[in-house]
Design goal:
Elements: H1 6-22, H2 26-37, E1 57-60, H3 65-78, H4 84-99, E2 114-118, H5 120-134
Antiparallel strand pairs: 1-2
Helix pairs in contact: 2-4, 2-5, 3-4, 3-5
Organism: Piprites chloris (Wing-barred manakin)
Keywords: Signal
Protein name: IL9 protein
């Protein structure tokens, strides 16, 4: 390796790390969320009673979206909501983004902070609007 290659290698590494910090998987997440929103079996009222097939999911405060999206999709998986493969991929994507500290604008820590809870549809709409705003 020559000395003239060193700046190129350092710049390439820096560029890759900056891209990784800003990667949020917007297109993939929008696609998964749209598929879930199109499934009418997911639209049911928010009930906070035990044994309900529909749970109240966290509507995140700004900067805490990723942690709340992880928590909400985890609750949906526990409630056995179909379609499970798409929901599983969505949950895994959010968890990976949170674990790797990617998508910094949506993750000021790993705790979900919210003031309100909503239906599955409201939760999925929040995911979709959040990522559509980023994808512009």
């Amino acid at each position: 390796m020559t000395a003239s290659m060193l700046p190129y290698i350092l710049f390439s590494g820096l560029l890759l790390s900056v891209q990784a910090e800003h990667y949020c998987g917007a297109r993939e997440i929008i696609r998964y969320t749209k598929r879930l929103l199109d499934d009418s079996s997911l639209s049911c009222p928010c009930r906070q009673t035990a044994g309900s097939s529909c749970s109240c999911l966290p509507i995140p405060e700004p900067g805490h979206e990723l942690a709340c999206f992880v928590e909400g999709t985890k609750q949906m998986l526990k409630a056995n909501m179909p379609p499970k493969p798409v929901l599983t991929r969505l949950h895994q994507t959010f968890q990976a983004l949170l674990d790797r500290n990617l998508c910094e604008s949506l993750s000021r820590g790993d705790q979900c902070q919210y003031k309100t809870k909503g239906t599955v549809t409201e939760f999925l709409n929040k995911i979709q609007t959040t990522y559509q705003a980023m994808n512009k």
